[in-house]
Design a protein that fits this description.
By secondary structure, the chain is mainly beta. 8% of the residues lie in helices and 59% in strands.
Amino acid sequence: MKTAIVIPLLLSLSIGQALADTPINLSHEAAPTVRVNISNVKGEVNVIAWDRNQVQVTGHLGDGAKPLTIDGDNNDMTIRVQSQGKSGWFNWSNENSMGSSTLDVRVPKGASLSVDVVSASMSIDGINGGKIKVNTVSGKARVNARTPLAELESVSGSLEFAGSADRVNLQTVSGDILAPNVNSEAELQTVSGRIRVGGGPWRKLNLSTVSGDVQLAGGIAPGGTFDVDSMSGDVQVQIPSNTSAIIHANTFSGDLRSDFGTVSKVEHGPGSELRATVGGGNAKINIETFSGDLRIRKQD
């Protein structure tokens, strides 16, 4: 009797799962520098660059999603997972009620990408030359690319940028930021996430955090500017021993230590500060913390 009940139940679950996961197999000819816009509410988005002038999408659609299409032309395409119900800001519940969808997308190496996800994780691998823009709420974003510009924003999801970029803009609320090879310009912001960044020599670097800790390692270009601002997060900065810059660092109640120059107490009021000229002093480094500890180290 139990077997007679269990078997139909298992069959029902299997059929339901099969109906929920609709396979995707789409392709579209593309220009070598095509712009591809991708959006998915939850699940995964995985983008891999290849040597073909073609965009291909495989994977599966979750329950409640409309049939997927590649819209646009060879120069500008949109791939968007949408609910079968009404879409839009006031119908968010329809979008959120969809099952998880997985998009595996292949694009030309020179493509530019704009990816929007909510709770979907996403990854980008192999782009060489195109610009990259990513927006995520809680999904983790990982990008491995060579690009002139990378703009990645997240609320609680972490951001990982590998490869190299001439200019990056990485912003989170509570998500961590990891970017070991940022080249000329960088804008880095977080509220409580940790920041781990390396690279340079930087022509312009701006970094700000409220309570997240910071580890920063890299050089500054001649005439460059280097600004770090923290409220309660600890900051550790490593710069090359042959740096040529004017260094100004101060903290209100944190502990300040430096391998360059001499730390002194602020003349009027609490706090410590450092004013040092290293080498020819032809760049500017400014680092400030309120209650976070500050360490400035030589990088051999």
